[in-house]
Amino acid sequence: MIIASELRKENIAQYLLYMWQIEDIIRANKLDIDKIDQSVISRFPADRRKEIYEWYESLIDMMRREEVTEKGHLQMNRNIIGSLADLNRRIMADPAPRFDDYRKEFYATLPYIVELRSKAGEDKAGEIETCFNALYGQLMLRLAKKEISPDTAKAFEQISKFIAMLSHYYALDERDELFKDDDKK
Description:
Elements (H helix, E strand, L loop, with lengths): L1 H9 L1 H17 L4 H7 L6 H20 L9 H19 L6 H19 L8 H17 L6 H25 L11
């Protein structure tokens, strides 16, 4: 769909959070395309509905095939988390001073990641996925108009700052511009 493809190009973090929300919308509608058509697709301009309908249909099919109808994420979304985690590892391992600000943000975010992972029980996610789980949780709290404590708001702010930087580097890496100086060595 157009929103997703634009977000995918512009901001990988926003794209991923959007896709998680789409997965939840599909689940909330019991993977029933008619319900989704009625509650979501019907709100779009008539000339776009067929394309959007087919997009939702394909996502429903993928969710069924990948057995994520009740929880979890589509493989394409898990692949993005994996790519972001891999990029994080590559940046952290690079001794170049150009990544000092990134490392600073990562280490400022790490205590929040550790705290969140300690609360996750048996279902611990990696560092980057933990950040996205937190950001998605923040989105859900805002949609439910729930109050967020100052400490939690501070954690969300730091995680957002870190993920924004990672997303920026992801876009640069996609264009082969992040490690371009390394090619000259």
